[in-house]
Amino acid sequence: MTRALVEAHNLTRRFGSFVAVDGIEVTVSAGEVFGLLGANGAGKTTAIRMLCGTLPPSDGTVCVAGMDMVRHARRARGYIGYVAQRFALYGDLTLLENLQLQAGLYGLNNSQRRERIGWVLQKLMLQDRAGRMAAGLPLGYQRRMALAAALLHEPQVLFLDEPTSGVDPIARQQFWELIYDLADTGIAILVTTHYMDEALFCDRIALMDAGKIIAEDTPAGLVARPLTTPMLELHSERGTELANALRQWPEVLEIIPHAGQLRIRLQQGSDAQATMDQIEKLARAQGVILSELKMADAELEDVFVALLERGQAEREGTAA
Which of 16, 29, 48, 166 has the most CB within a 10 Å radius? Predict the structure, then answer.
């Protein structure tokens, strides 16, 4: 059985009366890519800062690579690599000078320093940028540079906070290929993101909302969950004409244009078949030909939105 390298129980952080992270449970095994998915303000960054020891929790326990992050955070940091959401290296040094400085801070001797810097430059394809000033590098290269610095001391656990935010699609894909390669070496990786497509790359996902983990599963397991709000899929060259009318129907919660089709989300408890019959009747009345009308397969975004709405409804009910 693969051993857990990250274990957090009842992890909580308060700022005055505000609860930023509310009793979450997190476990990440060696070689696993674990994603924390949530909108901005959900508590992801606060959670990752507690997990990597830069912010003490108000309650709960955190164990990383067998070390107690609450009692021995400084000692435990030797086992982890952390890439912050914002660029945290020195813009007035070259890429190579930054790596040399970080290697010294990690306590690597001269031979270790040369070996590890050479390895990260090659692994992250940074050799041709080594002499460039860090501040002048494109954002994608700055992200890779930050990752290179985090890997110099061969950490067992890697924390990545929104590592591809603002990066172009090609650089994002390259970054995720690097993440996969690192996980294959046995590193436990925890990554926060608000990109739904990136969450699908993770082995497991935890969905965060208002400081809580509201669901956790594999991507396939989450998508397989039944939706409380039925979803229809409509294909027609004149779908926009139908959409204008459908938005007035009380049972229609939302209409989402998606890859040349319409995804129609219905109110909770709606009769999907009856609604499809009514849509077909409307199409005939307007002379619109439907290429296809069917129940839609759930996507991760559908599941996430449904869970967020349920959580919001529960909070409003509690407040009432």
Answer: 48
Question: DSSP for the chain?
Answer: -PPEEEEEEEEEEEETTEEEEEEEEEEEETT-EEEEE--TTSSHHHHHHHHTTSS--SEEEEEETTEETTTSHHHHGGGEEEE-SS--S-TTSBHHHHHHHHHHHTT--HHHHHHHHHHHHHHTT-GGGTTSBGGGS-HHHHHHHHHHHHHTT--SEEEEESTTTT--HHHHHHHHHHHHHHHHTT-EEEEEE--HHHHTTSSEEEEEETTEEEEEE-HHHHHTSPPSS-EEEEE-TTHHHHHHHHTTSTTEEEEEEETTEEEEEEPTT--HHHHHHHHHHHHHHHTPPPSEEEEPPP-HHHHHHHHHHHHHHHHHHHH-
What are the pLDDT digits (tens) for 65-82? Answer: 988 988 888 888 889 999
The 10s digit of each residue's pLDDT in 155-181 is 999 999 888 877 778 878 888 888 999
* pLDDT tens-place string over residues 178-227: 899 999 999 999 999 888 888 889 999 999 999 999 999 999 999 888 77
pLDDT band per the 50, 70, 90 thresholds, residue 320: very low
